[in-house]
Amino acid sequence: MDGELVDWADAQVHVLSHTMHYGSGVFEGIRAYPTTQGPAIFRLRDHVRRLVQSAKILLLDVPFTEDELVGACRDVVRANDLSDGCYLRPIVFLGYGEMGLNPLPCPVNVAIAAWPWGTYLGDDGVANGVTAKISSWRRHDPNAVPTAAKSTGMYLNSSLAKVEAIKAGYDEAILLAPDGHVSECTGENLFVVRDGRLRTPPTSDSGALDGITQQTVETIVADMGLEVTHEPIIRTDLYTADEVFLTGTAAEVVPIRSVDDRAVGEGRPGPITKEIQETYFATVRGQVDRYKDWLDHVE
Description:
Blueprint: H1 18-22, E1 26-27, E2 30-35, E3 38-42, H2 44-57, H3 66-79, E4 86-94, E5 108-115, H4 123-128, E6 130-138, H5 155-167, E7 172-176, E8 182-185, E9 189-194, E10 197-200, H6 203-206, H7 212-223, E11 227-230, H8 235-239, E12 243-248, E13 252-259, E14 262-263, H9 271-284, E15 295-297
Parallel strand pairs: 6-7, 6-13, 10-11
Antiparallel strand pairs: 1-4, 2-3, 2-4, 3-15, 4-5, 7-8, 9-10, 9-12, 12-13, 13-14
Helix pairs in contact: 2-3
């Protein structure tokens, strides 16, 4: 917290912290994986860079450099001896300074937590796929809030959609953009596979976050010799797809086996999704030479 290692039980903030009341913070989700050379944080610098960019969008002046934040992430993994891998949560938030909507008088604080965390949607979801429904909640309009920022307050939208889906008996929700096109899931990007070609919604107008796992998968797909494009997707494209899968740091790569009670393809993970999964899980564990530059080893 703010440049010092702090015991878990002592990592506390004031009840009048500005971000708690108004949601004006930014965060990242990062994973470290075990490798033959010890734990390695996957695409650490890319995540830190996006964290700083998100802060810039919200006019939060981060009091640390990118190099200092990278080093702090390594320090947290090392200090907790998380050699079997973990999930990291860096957050930039506004502490207590002055109540009210004006955030400018408030101090900018930075914290980085880490803990062991299994795959977000469960091992069965990774292996056999998850069920999803189109949410009644729409994704944010990029001109209402800056969807390019991974901001804390904006995830109320995701929480509402997630709870709606779970209470209705589904594993995950898919949100539509204000114009009715498919945007993303509650915390993951979405890919549609049809006739060997992959599509994912454009971030520019769909309100979807520009995902780092999404970018990773796009590189893997291109190296497989397949085409992937960013283009608008409508809900019926999900119903008629050969395969649909989602990507995110917490979720990793997860097949979607049905949307709105309609089986996707044959209702089980398809061959392209499974090949991408296998390559991704090998990549994050340092088993693919061409992608080893994405690993930041904790020494």
